[in-house]
Amino acid sequence: MGTPSILWSITKKCFTVGVITLTVSDLFASIVPVRGASMSPTFNPKTNSLFDSLSDDRVLVEKLCLRNYKFSHGDVIVFSSPNNHKEKHVKRIVGLPGDWVGTIYDVVHIPEGHCWVEGDNSASSLDSRSFGPVPLGLVKGRVTHVLWPPHRVGTVDRKTSQNRVSSSSSASKF
Amino acid sequence: MRQWKIIAKEAMARASIIGKFLCLLHVTDAYVLSSNHVLGPSMLPTLNITGDVVLVEHLSHRLGKLGSGDLVLVRSPLDPKKTLTKRIVAMEGDKVTFSLDPTRSHSSRSLVVPKGHVWIQGDNLYVSRDSRHFGPLPYGLIEGKVFMRVWPPSSFGLLGE
């Protein structure tokens, strides 16, 4: 007799919590696990070949940067892969629109609205050196803090490599 | 003292209802249905130059149910703050043949749309800046499918081809 109304109120509560969580994670910040060693030693510094999901780093991704898409050199961002929109990657911005970035073979000009991303662990990172500049519209957030494991909790700093990037923008700050 | 407590409690209850409503509004706008004001000549004669209000649904592109001929709202690869409305001409794996400037020459180029990308073009090929200029568009930049026009009232109705 009372069970339909209890079920209904539980459903309503779950729905409300779900909607609020989705909104907060879309507009403010969310917590994501980082898989792989492409950002070692910043994330996942231990290079086990077998990563169990409990030992992956968890990071805080802020979404407020998506209001005006203003990024700086050295920001770590989360973006959808240009080749597969269902995959998300975590890499560091090395070049902003208008920059010239030096790779092994040539110097690439970053077009308007795009950025050049690279993993901190150059040896095992699939990044802009393979799939080219990434449109800024694919960026889903900026990583600000490491939240897990507890002994490495802290802010994620900006790291720039001045010797490879020629920046034309005077607004770059670090 | 007790009056302030009652007032504060009621204010919190009202604020939480408004907060929950705004969250529902955001989820509907981003994941279900939203409206968009479209301007510009690049989609003539389908869309007017002076501006139409269209309804955009955000379900098809998440379910992978988009195909050639669909009108889509995409984030511009040249400026992430702008959105464009264009038509999908080819999906990944398809071969697309196009000429950069239909007025100038009859020469055309062909290429195969790479994995994870689509080829978009405006219906008005003479003034549209689309995949013919900035290349194949990553699927992740698609925001939704335009399916209906609601303003101006004289052109109210479903859109599509």
UniProtKB/TrEMBL annotation, chain A:
Keywords: Hydrolase, Membrane, Mitochondrion, Mitochondrion inner membrane, Protease, Transmembrane, Transmembrane helix. It comes from Hibiscus sabdariffa. InterPro entries: IMP2 (IPR037730), LexA/Signal_pep-like_sf (IPR036286), Pept_S26A_signal_pept_1 (IPR000223), Peptidase_S26 (IPR019533). It is a single-pass membrane protein. Pfam families: Peptidase_S26. It is found in: Mitochondrion inner membrane. This is Mitochondrial inner membrane protease subunit 2. Residues 9-101, 109-148 form the Peptidase S26 domain. The keyword Repeat does not apply. Belongs to the peptidase S26 family. IMP2 subfamily. The keyword NADP does not apply.
From TrEMBL, chain B:
Residues 1-30 form the signal peptide. PROSITE patterns: SPASE_I_3. Its main location: mitochondrion. NCBIfam families: sigpep_I_bact. InterPro entries: LexA/Signal_pep-like_sf, Mito_IMP1_subunit, Pept_S26A_signal_pept_1, Pept_S26A_signal_pept_1_CS, Peptidase_S26. The lineage of its organism: Eukaryota, Viridiplantae, Streptophyta, Embryophyta, Tracheophyta. Keywords: Hydrolase, Membrane, Mitochondrion, Mitochondrion inner membrane, Signal. This is Peptidase S26 domain-containing protein. It comes from Hibiscus sabdariffa (roselle). Belongs to the peptidase S26 family. IMP1 subfamily. It comes from the Eukaryota. It is found in: Mitochondrion inner membrane. Residues 17-99, 108-151 form the Peptidase S26 domain. SUPFAM superfamilies: LexA/Signal peptidase (SSF51306). It holds the Pfam family Peptidase_S26. The keyword Membrane applies.
